[in-house]
Design brief:
Blueprint lengths: L11 H4 L2 H8 L4 H27 L7 E2 L2 E2 L2 H5 L8 H12 L8 H18 L7 H18 L16 H26 L5 H15 L3 H11 L12 H27 L2 H9 L4 H16 L1 H14 L11 H8 L9 H35 L1
Antiparallel strand pairs: 1-2
Helix pairs in contact: 5-15, 6-7, 8-9, 8-11, 8-14, 9-11, 10-11, 11-13, 11-14, 12-13, 14-16, 15-16
Length: about 375
């Protein structure tokens, strides 16, 4: 007996795959279909407008005149095409700031070292004691390359540093130092046997969280030198680094404390039953599980503070954003800031997206190991 047309099963492509997903999520009702079509139209129109402005009618090079680049062709195309020639002319200043032109291979190597360090640290096969030695060696090498003054390298003071290396230095050192500080503060805030330590931790967290980061940067840049003896001066970059580290430590401490509070008491009680000391119980049982529970908010905080390093431009430190703003302050390139900001946004997005993707992969991997 033949099966009726209505009773025949639908093809597999209609039940699973992209067609089924689109039907279930984009075209399941008339309202969803109308909204999908409207948003699709707006997205396609915006994409075509950007393609027309950023590629088809874009200016990629400008002729060189006797007084420098001639930007008349870019100004003639203003509003109809992007002037990407500003990136070709100013990319070295955007990336390296006022670092001496002939020595800019050194901060370029520093950027590559930071990226290599991130990749090595993200690989769980390298999560051993030797990783700390790799970090120490990399930090020493970065310091030698940036400062110089040894091994025949020209001395370059911090006042000439700028661009992407400054952003990576501030973000990396701040988060690397703030995370262990945050763990100690979170543990101290939950302490029941050391009330004085608990009070200090509570005061630190509430005081730092009660003021914006800009306030701390101004305090470190303007107020701190007033309390120092005559002739004693701390570099402005170091002061900004300490302020960002303390600020990040307070916020990360609350994230870690949330993970500690969400862990069932039975885990700590089981460790106590095994006769483990407080620090062994904390390091081997409590902290690994607590940190695994708060991976998303931890990474979200990391991403936020990576972008917040751009606030140092307020106190005159030439980070990546400040270098980009200064690059288009030259009269010949004034009015072409949109192109520079787009490139800066892509750089920030690349680092933040990499952190986000890594955290998702790490979360899935740890969850799969826990289910085993």
């Amino acid at each position: 007996m033949s099966t009726s047309i209505a009773a025949r099963p639908r093809p597999a492509a209609a039940r699973t795959g992209p067609i089924a997903w689109a039907r279930a999520n984009l075209f399941n009702t008339w309202w969803s279909t109308a909204l999908t079509l409207a948003l699709g139209y707006l997205i396609l129109r915006g994409a075509w407008a950007f393609l027309d402005w950023g590629v088809i009618h874009a200016i990629w090079q400008v002729p060189q005149g006797p007084k420098g680049p001639n930007t008349d062709i870019c100004r003639a195309a203003a509003g109809t095409g992007a002037c990407w020639a500003v990136i070709g002319e100013k990319y070295r200043f955007i990336l390296f700031g006022f670092y001496p032109y002939a020595q800019q291979w050194r901060p370029a190597i520093v950027i590559a070292l930071f990226i290599a360090l991130y990749c090595i640290s993200a690989n769980r096969r390298f999560w051993r004691k030797e990783l700390a030695l790799i970090w120490i060696a990399a930090m020493v090498l970065i310091g030698i390359l940036m400062w110089g003054g040894v091994f025949g390298l020209t001395l370059v003071t911090e006042s000439q540093w700028g661009g992407l290396p400054i952003t990576l230095i501030l973000a990396t050192f701040a988060l690397a130092l703030a995370f262990p500080l945050a763990v100690l503060v979170a543990l101290g805030r939950r302490s029941t046997r050391l009330p004085a330590v608990k009070l200090l931790c509570v005061m630190y967290v509430e005081l730092i969280r009660g003021v914006p980061l800009i306030t701390l940067l101004f305090m470190a840049s303007v107020m701190f030198p007033l309390f120092m003896p005559n002739g004693f001066d701390v570099d402005k970059l170091l002061r900004a680094q300490v302020a960002i580290t303390l600020f990040a430590g307070a916020y990360l401490a609350e994230v870690v404390r949330a993970g500690l509070q969400s862990l069932p008491k039975g885990q700590a009680e089981a460790a106590d039953a095994l006769g483990l000391s407080y620090w062994k119980k904390t390091l081997l049982v409590v902290l690994p599980q607590a940190l695994r529970l708060v991976i998303p908010p931890l990474v979200n905080t990391f991403i936020g503070f990576f972008k917040d390093t751009s606030l140092v431009l307020i106190i005159g430190i030439f980070d990546l954003l400040k270098s980009g703003i200064t690059a288009v302050a030259e009269p010949a390139w004034q009015g072409f800031g949109n192109e520079v900001y787009i490139v800066l946004a892509l750089i920030y997005f690349a680092f933040c997206f990499a952190m986000s993707r890594y955290s998702r992969g790490l979360e899935r991997e740890l969850d799969r190991a826990r289910r085993r």
